[in-house]
Amino acid sequence: MISHPSRHCTVELQALPSRIGQVRRILSAHLRYWHMDPLIDRAELGVTELLTNVHRHAQPDKTCTVEIELLLDRLMVSVHDHDPRLPVVADIEDTEPLATCGRGLAMVAAVSESWGVRPDGPSGKVVWFTLPTPAAVRPGVAHPLRRTVTEKPALRFADVSVDSHRPEHAPARSAVAG
Hints:
The protein has helices spanning 17-33, 40-57, 104-111, and strands at 2-3, 8-14, 63-70, 74-81, 114-119, 125-132. By secondary structure, it is α+β, with helices and mostly antiparallel strands.
C-alpha cells in the first residue's frame, strides 16, 4: 500500500532486495516532486541501509513500513518493523577493514542530521533519520547556515542514548540503543 498526501508517504512492504530498489525509486520520485533533489542520494543511502537491516536481521518476518515525511525544515525517514530487538551497533573501530557488513548504521549517522531507534509497542521498533531541507527551497524563511556533512563532527556510538519519543521539530542529534 502507498499513501501520499502532499508531504507524507507510507510504503508497506516485505524487505526483500527487489523491493528495496522499488522503495528507493518511490523515495526519489517523492523528493523530486517536493523539489528536494539535493536530498535524494543521502535519503536513498539511508533507507537502503535501514531496509537491508530489516532484511538481514528482523524476526519473525520481513514485513515493514517505510514512512517519509517532509517537515518544515527537515525530511524524516523511518522504518517500522515487527522485531522488538533493538539494533546492536558495533564500534566502527572494531569492524574488520574488509568486512562486507556492520557499517550500515554508521553510514546512516554519517549522512544524516540526526537518527535514532525507539521501541514501537511490545512487538516492534522504529529506526529513523532526518536530513535538513535545503534553505533555497523555503523562500521567505530565514535559517542559520547549516553544516555540511563533511563538516559534521564524528559521533562515537558510546556518546548516544535511546530516543524513546518520536521527534517533533527538534529531534535529538543521535540516539541509539545498545
